[in-house]
Design a protein that fits this description.
The complex is a heterodimer of chains A (147) and B (81). Chain A is α+β, with helices and mostly antiparallel strands and 147 residues long. In chain A, 29% of the residues lie in helices and 38% in strands. Chain A is built from 3 helices and 9 strands, in the order βαβββαβββαββ. In chain A, helix 2 (53-68) runs antiparallel to helix 3 (101-118). Chain A is elongated and about 50 Å long. Chain A starts with a strand and ends in a 13-residue tail after the last strand. The model of chain A is unreliable at 142-147 (pLDDT under 50). Chain B is α+β, with helices and mostly antiparallel strands. Chain B has 2 helices and 7 strands. Chain B has helices spanning 10-16, 31-39, and strands at 2-8, 20-25, 29-30, 52-55, 58-59, 65-66, 72-75. In chain B, strands 2-1-7-4-5 form a 5-stranded mixed β-sheet. In chain B, strand 4 (52-55) and strand 5 form a beta hairpin. The model of chain B has no long low-confidence stretch (mean pLDDT 96). The chains are: A alpha+beta (147), B alpha+beta (81).
Chain lengths: 147, 81
Amino acid sequence: MIRTAITTSPIDAAALLAEVTTDATGATALFLGTVREVNDGRAVTGIEYSAYTAMAGEELQRIAKEASERFDGLRIAVEHRVGTLALREISVAIAVAHARRAPALETSRTIIEALKQRVPIWKRESYVDGDRQWVDPTTAHVSATAP
Amino acid sequence: MHQLQVLLFASYAEAFGASSVTVAVPDPATVADVVGALRRLPGGDVLPDAPLVAVDRRYAPGVVHVRAGQEIALIPPVAGG
C-alpha cells in the first residue's frame, strides 16, 4: 500500500499512522518534519512552502514506489504540506509500517532523503526582522549543530 | 527557430518576474538549448552552471530533446522536507 499527497491542509499524523497500521504490521516508523525557530543563525517566524504541484506529486509517488520495492509488505503514507506554516507545524509526514522494524525504519529514512533531493518544493523563510528569503540548500551555510 | 514555453517557480519566478517565459530555440532543440536561451533573458544571470530542468514532469539532462507541447520547467534548488 502506498499513498502520497501534496496538501494545503494541516497534516494529521495520527491519521497516517492509522492508515498504515494493520493486524499484520508489528512496527511503524513515523517521521515528521516541523518548522523550527532558527535556521542558519536567523530567527524564523514562519515558512511559506510552494511546489510545482503536479510534478511534486508524481515525484513523491515515484520515490515511495522505488522505496517500496526493497522490501515486501511495506505500507507507506506520505504527505507534504504547502502554504504558510507557523513554528512547530508539520511540513512533512512519512508513516511506514512493516512486520519488522528494520524495513520500516530504513524505508522512512530512504524516503525523506530522496524527498529532500528530488521533490520540487521550495520554502521561503520569514525572519523576525521582517526579511524573507528563499532557502537554497546548495549554498546553505553548514552548521556543526544542524540536525 | 521555434518558440517554447518554460514554467518558472519560486526564486526563478521572482528573478524572471513571471511564472512562465517563452524562449526561441533551434528546431530541434535540447534542454541545454533552452537553458542557454533562458540565460540570455533579463534575470537569467541568477541561473547556476547546470540548473535542473524537468520535461513532462521528470528531470531531464541537457542532451534530451524538447519540442513544443511538452511541459518544460526550470527547477530552482529544491528545499522540501
